[in-house]
Amino acid sequence: MSCPNDAVKIETGIEIADEHDAAGYYFYYFDKKNNKKHFLPDPDATDDIFHTMLELKKYFLDNNLTNGEPIWTGCIVEIDIKNSKLILNLSMSGLLVFLKMMTNINH
Fold first, then answer.
1. Taking 80 as the threshold, does the pLDDT of residue 89 lie above it?
2. pTM of the model as a whole
3. Are strands 9-16 and 74-80 parallel, antiparallel or unpaired?
4. Secondary structure class of 82 (helix, strand, coil)
5. What residues form DSSP beta bridges with 101?
């Protein structure tokens, strides 16, 4: 996914429809002065994100990772470019289920 050159952090959100046929998105980035700005990603990015999230939902369901609870419906992804960190917050009916995957995104 492409982002503005002055981005030090990216935040994107996706909410998937119950029918799994549509989704809503938002894309923000933060510059070096921590100003939050909206941006439009490469057009293929939203399709890639949508299909990846559907695969992740299927993985959670196939591997019984919901602990009997309803599956999450969306997520917020934060990419800290400066510190090479990825944070994935899964949301379920307005409740955030924090699955913080602190990882080095260079690997």
1. yes
2. 0.74
3. antiparallel
4. coil
5. none
CA 45 to chain CA centroid, Å, is 11
Sign of CA dihedral 20, 15, 45, 98: negative
Stretch 35-48: mean pLDDT: 88
Q: Which residues pair with 10 in a beta bridge?
A: 29, 79
Residue the block writes with tokens 């799994």: 20
Reading phi first (left if > 0) and then psi (alpha if -120 to 50, else beta), residue 64 is in: left
The gap between the terminal CA atoms of the chain, to the nearest Å, is: 16
Alpha helical stretches, state H, the chain: 43-62
CA–CA separation, 82 vs 84, rounded Å?
6
Amino acid, single-letter form, for residue 33? K
